[in-house]
Write a structure and sequence with these properties.
By secondary structure, the protein is mainly α. It has one domain. The chain has five helices and no strands. The longest helix is centred in the middle third of the chain and has 27 residues. The protein is globular, with a radius of gyration of 18 Å. The chain starts with 9 loop residues before the first helix and ends with a helix.
């Protein structure tokens, strides 16, 4: 069969392939952060000190610059971390069958919690902060 030709699976085959690709993409961020053999990539590999600095810049720009270019840039930097953390929490929920662990947490709560953790553990990596957050969410929920 040539590339792009319709097959008997049709849309169902494309949907299955989409889920498979999504699972493969998520699996890279679901590795145990504390494992000495794990490779953490992306924002999760950054130090908590880096995150704390970005989060503080975001808070300051929001307080002092309003909706200006500086605030938008700071928000984009924080979003980079938040998206990684959200993916990590979702992956952990799925892996450990803990649906709804983060249901009662909004982005402000998560950002503040990670920021507080990172202020105290500046040399740690963000993946470990996300793991600690997941444990906190699990304790509060179950």
């Amino acid at each position: 069969m040539r590339f792009g030709a319709a097959d008997s699976r049709g849309a169902q085959g494309r949907t299955t392939l989409s889920y498979l690709l999504m699972a493969l993409a998520l699996s890279a961020s679901v590795v145990p952060a504390r494992s000495e053999h794990a490779t953490v990539r992306g924002a999760g590999a950054s130090t908590c000190g880096d995150y704390a600095q970005v989060y503080q810049a975001f808070r300051l720009s929001k307080d002092h610059a309003g909706d200006g270019e500086v605030a938008r840039s700071a928000a984009a930097n924080v979003l980079h971390y938040e998206e990684w953390i959200d993916g990590y929490i979702l992956g952990m929920e799925t892996s450990f069958k803990r649906d709804g662990v983060g249901r009662d947490w909004d982005q402000v709560d998560i950002g503040k919690w990670i920021s507080d953790y990172c202020q105290e553990h500046r040399s740690d990596i963000v993946a470990n902060a996300a793991l600690a957050l997941f444990k906190e969410m699990s304790t509060a929920r179950f």
